[in-house]
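Collaborator request log, item 7. Partner lab (contact: R.S.) asked for a structural prediction of Class I SAM-dependent methyltransferase to inform their binding assays.
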Amino acid sequence: MRMVYSVPGKPRLQDRWRAISLSEGQQGIHEGARHFLTMNGKHRPDLYETQKVFFQEAYRSGKVGWPRTGASRLVLSALEKGYLPSRCRVLEIGCGEGRNLSVLQRHGCRVVGMDYVLEPLRSARNLVDRNLPLIQGDLLSLPFRDGSFDAFLDWGVFHHLRRSEREQYPLWVSRLAVPGAVLLLGAFSEKFRHHPDEVRRRTFVRHRGHYDVFFTRERFSVALGNRWKLLWSGEEDQGDGLSYYRLGIFRYEPPATDASG
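Returned to partner:
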């Protein structure tokens, strides 16, 4: 029997995605393709395989290099400025352990959390309301109908994509966006360092099994192409003298259709 995941007022997943029952011990986490490496039967690049292993081990060990609690300044700024009205439909891409999900849910947003690593979703399940959908899924094969969301949050995924995938990213998100939707994006600043003595000659680096891209203010402002207009930008740091991030709120402005037909 095919299982289709659906929640009233929430986007419906495609039939190929399997919903895990609570009796299977996953506590309401819905799993998509089991492997981030496969899409339409094709093997994915080794980069994303090693990257997934890196994040799995980081969450299992508890030794992560990113914030685990407290909402990002990006989310708080969007709420303060009115870009995320109550009842808006929000997809968080790479929701991790749910530090932003809980804040959005309390604000009244209808939120879906997605991550391609299962471990943090287990933690998020204990943090957010039981009815908030959590999905183990793949950014490159998003399982939602066109126009499903009013807003998107990506704090920490975009900067782990290679150029070919970054160029496709606006198209993937645009398909799911209603006109005027907003995207909250957080990514590594060019000031970010993995350690105090790090010297980089390029805008990207492979570090401990994962791929990192770093953005200047100018580069970040146009990272999503000409269909996503930057409305607000800022910075955030962890106070350690190393971890700096670019923040941006972008609005989707689809091209005008030809009225003449």
